[in-house]
Amino acid sequence: MSSTPNLSHGRGYLAIPGPSVMPEAVLNAMHRPAPNIYSGELVQMMPALMQDLRRVARTQHHVAMYIGNGHAAWEAALANVISPGDKVLVPATGRFGIGWGEMAKGLGAEVEVMDFGKQSAMDLARISERLAADKSHEIKAVLAVHVDTSTSVLNDIAGVRAALDAAGHPALLMADCIASLACDRFEMDDWGVDVMVTGCQKGLMVPPGVSFVFFNDRAAQVRTKMPRVSMFWDWAPRANPEEFYQYHCGTAPTHHIYGLRAALDLIHAETVEAVWARHAVLARAVWAACDAWSTEGSFALNIGDPALRSHAVTALRLEAPQATQLREWVQHNIGLTLGIGLGMAPPGSPESHGFFRLGHMGHVNGHMIMGLLGGLEAGMASIGIKRGQGALDAAAKVIGGV
Questions:
Q1: Do residues 330 and 346 lie in contact, with contact meaning Cβ atoms separated by under 8 Å?
Q2: Helix, strand, coil shares, percent, the chain, to 5
Q3: Which of 23, 102, 164, 332 has the greatest number of beta carbons closer than 10 A?
Q4: Model confidence at 4: pLDDT above 90
Q5: What's the rounded Cα separation, in Å, for the pair 377 and 395?
Q6: What average pLDDT does the structure give for the chain?
Q7: pTM, to two decimals
Q8: 3-state class (DSSP) for residue 62
Q9: What SS3 string covers 90-154?
Q10: CA-to-CA distance for 242 and 91, rounded, in angstroms?
């Protein structure tokens, strides 16, 4: 028998950038028999649920709910405002900007990608130049990812609106907030966003399976001019249903609704502003530890400028194959699961084993983040990864407000 016990038994910690840790209140709310989908509690709770979703998105406008993941929300948003042959501009800062563009191409759109790489935010000056050059307004929408989960970059969505307005350009501003909603500050109405998409499995702390498209009156007007929108993707009856079944174009995702109700109750009890502030402090603690580790060896934050980093996810680099070795060690030995490096290198290539990510979104607090960082320290010590010292002390000072 090995003299070293396995320390992974007990409750595991899923520290990936979604699905996020689910609160007990959400799990308990979902642990119930199937409800009546024609009358009663489930039907009655939907109007308030939709209003509370708007409060998180900071919008007074419309929201449509879909049974599906974030990719479904991408397609739903596009299907309501983009016709085959329309041009969309995609300022990409990682895999998910590219992916949304691929979804648009699959629907017949002409996709123009401005690729800013994997370590930079969107260049607003270049976007402004491109919009100003589009004198005939061929571009119908700008697909902008607020936080690209693959690179952990935080993009300036309000800045894209300013670029559109300065150019006098009528294109819709469409924002992907799948990783950022209820983690990083987002102001749909104040920032002039026309369409926003998100999912339930990250900042909203619910198991994957439900996604949302928020849209304003300007986008709704574009929808009315579409030659056709399939019944399932059409956001009009979902946002303004005459019957309960129209919220979901059929049978409701019953248990997701109960879980979402519990999650929204938690968010609004804390307040959205306090949720943003909590994520900001916890992110700074993660960065402080990473900065200390990066003073020696190959350990590095993917995004160098703290102002351009998401508060929900942190992408990291190590000399390959150390990132994969570290992920495997902490999962098998201490029950900690880290995120893979997604879209940073071709899958299965030697370089792909040099990237990993930390999810610090949703139902997380100070001691969980300290445990996450302590687990990383233990793993790097066991494997023999060269790193700087003082990481946990640096994080503890942030957590402690020192």
A1: no
A2: 45, 15, 40
A3: 164
A4: no
A5: 12
A6: 97
A7: 0.96
A8: strand
A9: EEECCHHHHHHHHHHHHCCCEEEEEECCCCCCCCHHHHHHHHHHCCCCCEEEEEEECEECCCCEE
A10: 38
192 burial (CB, 10 Å; 0-12 / 13-18 / 19+) is middle
Return the pLDDT at 1: 47
If you write DSSP's letter for every residue of 179-218 in order, what string do you get? TTTTTS---TTTTT-SEEEEESSSTT---SSEEEEEE-HH
Six token digits for residue 279: 């994520």
User: What does the block give as tokens for 60?
Assistant: 């007074």
Q: Among candidates 230, 189, 196, which has minimal Cα distance to 212?
A: 196
In whole angstroms, what is the distance from residue 352 CA to residue 337 CA? Answer: 17
Distance of CA 307 to the CA centre of its chain: 17
C-alpha neighbours within 13 Å on the C-beta side of residue 87: 12
Q: Domains of the chain (ranges plus CATH)?
A: 32-254 (3.40.640.10), 271-399 (3.90.1150.10)
What the block records as the tokens of 108 is: 């017949």
Measure Cα distances from 393 to 132, 279, 390 in Å.
49, 19, 5
| Cβ atoms 164, 142 nearer than 8 A | yes
% of the chain surpassing 90 pLDDT: 98
Q: What are the structure tokens assigned to 123, written together? A: 């260049």
Quick one: CA dihedral 326, 328, 332, 336, positive or negative? positive
For residue 339, the SS3 value is: strand
Closest by Cα among 392, 353, 352, 354 to 375? 392
pLDDT at 2: 54
